Structure formats: structure tokens, C-alpha cells
Here is the input.
Amino acid sequence: MSDQTKDSLSPSSCAPYSQPVLIDTHCHLEMEAFDNDRDAVLQRARNAGIEAIVTVGSDCESIEKGIKLSQDYDFIYTSCGLHPHEARDFSDSIYHKFKEYVKNEKVVAIGETGLDYHYNNSPRNDQREVFVKHIMLSQETGLPLIIHSREAQDDTIRILRDADVSRGVFHCFSGDVDMAEKVMSLGFYISLAGPVTFKKASMLKEVARLVPDDYLLIETDAPYLAPLPYRGKRNEPSYLQHTVKHVAELRNINYEDLARITTLNAKRAFGIGVISEKAVIAYKIRDSLYLNITNRCTNKCSFCVKFHTDYVKGHKLRLDHEPTEGEIKEAIGNPAAYREVVFCGYGEPLQRLDVVKHIAQWVKKKGGTVRVNTNGHANLIHKKNIVPELKGIVDRISVSMDAHDETTYNRICRPLYENAFTAVIDFIRLAKEIIPEVQITVVNLEDVNIAQCKRIAQQLGVPFRIRSFNAVG
Ligand code: SF4
Here is the structure.
């Protein structure tokens, strides 16, 4: 391959994509399976929007080939590890080589390592010892672990817990929801591969639906485990699109959202690429446009995502300033292009009542539809009933009730005001008289009596929806 060809595949010289970018967080590009057409495979990956690939080492030979590939192509990264199948071959001299490999800046992870009690190609004791060595190397270098765990879940979790390690990825995750929760409680990512697309993979599909955005990665594990419709064929990075499409459908979000979410996670997990630090004012989720006009809020909900991340669905929402009306209009563009324009974001939008009113009027004039997601404190904030001011300009309002009584509300939402729960209920009652569609939402927390919340909604005569705990607003 000429240097010119290699450059043409590098991210720096590549034309901007018209499609969402993806990162294949686990494949084996150095394998013989790609020897005849590796360049074509990489070109197809680029054409499919693959922004970066982590080609994963499983022994010294594959690591050296991976490093070579990572030097030839800007967008390829690699890792250093001995597969548990080969654990019986581990030696001091291999460990010494590993210490040299990790000095290369394109080596971004330790692994794949872990335990495989399905094939037992190496004695289990050897596997456990070598796994611990990899963990030590990860702790020494600060690089994340790439973990292979097959039919060895209890031992894998126990060893990681004992080592107090919290950075890494469970690659080609094959466990159930219970295992996924244990993995996430350690701080590890769940990486889904082609098998999630298989028709009978009901357990994996359930995991794919339930893993919170912050913990999800997507990989091919190419040349193995091709997703549908290529099951049984050689896998390659460009097929990642099929897994992304399927997982997006399972999560009821669009392809673009899942691509953004998992690309951000991959960059964070492996410290690769550039993460945009620019806060967004308007961001699209499915076919709605969400507005982020303030980060101020009169609650401090224990479950609020803003206390542990600046990002929602891969969008940075931590504002460095509250946007002006001009900035908001510019960020919206054509409001009629969306199913609805939603005031939401990282704070309580009705704190900026005048801005909401002016923008809502403008959206309506342009043929758009307006929803406000609110904590229902507006009348406390403005010390008057503001609901009539929303008449004719707000089509829908979604009020976060978030508890079944005042005591629980105070404990979960930690409001700035006394008797805030009572005020929220009053706000819902007033809104129902004026706003065409009013909805109550509640986060599904253990403390919350959902049946009681439903009864309150029935008494108020408004629909009721349970929100996932990682939703904002
Ligand atoms: S979840 Fe909503 S109401 Fe609660 S603190 Fe966050 S932005 Fe405020």
C-alpha cells in the first residue's frame, strides 16, 4: 500500500461524513481472515462512518501486528493482552514484552484478558493468575481493561472486586440483566456485539434495552460473530451499522442517537479522539428537538443525570452561559421540521419564563408544536399563577411529580421550597384547565409508590408515565 492510500484513510484527511460516526471498540484486524483484502475492509469501514477501530491483541504476535496497523492508519488503535485461552503460555518474558508494548501511544487498553470456563483451553488457575497480572498492568498504566468472560461470571466479578478496579469494558457481553448490573456497579462498560441481533437472543436484547446510555458500547469482534443479515459469514467493521441499527430499535431511539452515545462512550473508555466541549442549546432526540436554555433548577433530585455527567444522549448539556433568544432561535432553525420543540435540558426551563413565552410564540408562528418539561415549581418561583401566560403557546406540558407524597418528594427531589410537592399538584390542576395536553411523570425509584402516584394522576384526570431514572427534566 502506498503512503498516499494510507493517508486517504486517516481521519485528518478524510472528507466529513454525511452520516453518524461510529467506533468499533473490538475487532481483530490483524488476523489472517483479512490478509487478502484488509485495505478494502478498511475502506468499507470508513465508508460506513467508522471513525476509529480498536484492534485487540490476544498474544504477542497479534499485539505486534496490531501496533503495526495502528502506526499505518491514524484511525486504528490497539491493545495489549493474552487471551485466557492462551493463559497456560504466560511467562515473565511475555510480561516484560507487554511492559514495552504499552509504552506505544496507540496501545489504548489492556486485554483481551479474563476467564473462559466454556472451552477451558487453559487450566482455570492459570487463567485466574494471568487475569490478575493484566489487572496489575492496567492499574500501573492507567489503561482500561478489555475483558472476555465466558461462563465465568462469578469469578470474573470477584477478581475485579478484590482488585478494586473500575475501568474497562466487558467485551461481547453475553450475560443477563443481573450480570450487567454487577458489571456496571463496578464502573465497567457493557459492549454488545453481533449476537444481540440474533432472533433468539432474548436475554441480550433485554440487556440492550436496559443498559443506561453511559455504560453502552458497540463492537463487531470481527472476523467473528457477524450480525444479521451476515450471520455465519466473516464479520468486518462496516457491519457494525447493523448492530447499531438493531440496538437503536430495541432502545426506541434512532440510529443517529445511538451512534452519538456509543461514540462518546468509546472515546471516554479508551481516551481516543476528540470529545466536543461545546454545550448544545438545541438537540435532536428521535424526531423531537429539545431546548437547553438553563442549567439552574429549584430541585436537586438525587437521580438527576447532571450530578454525574455533562452529557445526555451524547450531547453536552452543561452550559457556559444561558443562551439569548437569538441564539435559541438560531439553534432551532425551522421548528416545523420537528414533531415538537421541547423545553427541557439540564435545569427548570420555566425559571426563564419570558424566554419560554417568546420562543414558544415564535415556534407556534412558524408552524411548530411546543412542549414544556417542568418540575412544576413555576408558581413558587414567580410567586404568582403563571399558567394563564402559557395559554395558546404551549401545546403540551409534562410535569415531573416524582413522588407519591411530600415527605418522599423532599427526600428524593430536595426542593428549594417548602411544601413543593403540594405546589406541584396545584400546578398540575391549574395546567389541566388551560394547556391542551398535561402529563404527569414519575421516575421509577424504589422509594416511590407507583400505584399511589397512578391514583393521584387518576384523581387529577391526567395521563401518567413512568420515566427511566436517567432522563432529564
Ligand atoms: S431531574 Fe429535573 S427537576 Fe430534578 S434536579 Fe434535574 S433538572 Fe431539576
